[in-house]
Amino acid sequence: MHSLQLLQRWQQITLASLVVLLLALAWYKIPHPAIAAAGLLPLLLVAGLRLPFLLCLAFIAFSFFRLHEVFPALYPLKIPQLLALGTLGSLMANLLTQRIQMFWSREHSTFLLFFGLVIIGAALATNRAAAMSSLTGTYIKIAIMVLAISWLLRRESQFKAVLINMILCGIGVGLVALRNKSQGLELVEGTRVTIGRSIGSMLGDPNDLSLVLLFPAAFALAVLLTPRMGKLWKLLGLIGFITVVCAIIATQSRGGLLGICAVSGVFAWRRVQNKALLVSVGVCALGVLFVLAGVSDRASGGAHEEGIDESAMGRIYAWQAAIGMAVHHPLTGVGINNFISNYFDYSPHWDGKNHAVHSTWFGILAETGLLGFMIFSTLIIQIARIGFKSVAYFQPRSESDHSGATQSYSPVLYACAQSVQAGLAGFCISGTFLTMGFTWPIYILLSLAIALSQYRISAEAKRLAKCETPHSNAPQKTHNSLK
Asked: Is the pLDDT reported for residue 297 higher than 70?
């Protein structure tokens, strides 16, 4: 038996060595990055079958944080495409082999209803090519990841991996943004920092960059302020939050600054008793952030523009156009990624060019109609509800919960629950001025909220089962003692 295992091991080593030699020979003959990327396929296959959640987490890191654009050396390797294929294959394989236990929730149903409406709107869009490009290129991946994350995220160690991944990615993107700012690279309007603008990256817009940076701020602050997280964790949270805030300040995005105040306000609201003092300090802090960011010196929306500045007026005109689109298309909207192409027909003011909506709420209203807006709002309310329940359930207890049963406190789960709450607050506030309806943040929060809710339900069921077991034996013990 031992000799047979040894023979199989040597066969595996020989096969692996031959594959490495073939890849090295191919790289020598054809020095193309695709050859190096092909060398990652065996690792993706193994990771997909054995560690599907980590593969999914890597896909989110590259798709949302655009790490291959933040670090251009990774761009030719086509890592997002490889991770997308690996994640889809892993999900299907693990579902077929029943390694993943599927479940369904009300939040899944709400999202599926919204996703179906987006598909119908894309099919009926005036610019169907643009709608289908956004649907198949980005949104369908987001839809699959909502299911994958909520089903794969089952253990406390996986929640810990989410925290680490979000904070480290935020630090990486933030440091590159600060480097660009210090060296005067990739600047817009002379002062606003971006990343990868020269290569057409999504992060080439300072508002989009601030949106990406805002998301890990909630995770970093949750880790920093959660009791018993450990000194290294708190140091990581402190470094992450400071880096992200400084990078958002460098973007000079007003929506990003409001989002930072919203995220911080959620944590402060739970810890400060004097709410009037908290609101006053928050207003002062927002003013300080605007001064530090130098918003008044911006080429657009700065102090040199009298009255309502051009940037603000552009938003108002865009929001009026969004209302017109929703009124004329109440059931399906104009279609995903169709706001700009319909702007001329519905805007009350035309300055010679189309404008973006610059608002999540008005963007959803215009592109999915009144019906889509109501479903999306329902989804937001469901996430908020889960956030409140999860924070209440996982928060520290002195000795026991209200039912008298002991409650073990988990710093990781409590930090994740707080991240959902703070991240949702940041999304709702900054989303008023940033277009985030069809991008990753809210859907990652949705997946995390569903996973937390399922974990809480399972934990509560186990706790109740343990509590009921002694009571079921009690009559029998009493009967025996009477005998």
From this structure: no
Averaged pLDDT score across all residues of the chain:
82
Residues 86 and 166 in one domain: no
Say how many domains are in the chain. Answer: 2
How far is Cα 357 from Cα 305, in angstroms, rounded to an integer?
21
Angle, CA 74 vertex, CA 188 and CA 12 arms, to 5°? 165
Instruction: List residues bridging with 192 in a β-sheet.
Output: 188
CA distance 351 to 309: 15
> Mean pLDDT across the stretch 104-124?
95
Local confidence band at 314 (pLDDT 50, 70, 90 cut-offs): confident
Final residue of a structural domain among 66, 100, 134: 100
Q: Is residue 30 part of a domain?
A: no
pLDDT at res. 300? 54
Residue 478 CB-density burial (10 A; 0-12 exposed, 13-18 middle, 19+ buried): exposed
Same domain? 112 vs 92: no
Inter-residue contact 420 to 382 (CB < 8 Å): no
Could you tell me if residue 118 is inside a domain? yes
Phi, psi of 104 (to 5 degrees): -135, 140
Residue 205, token pair as written in the block: 């817009």
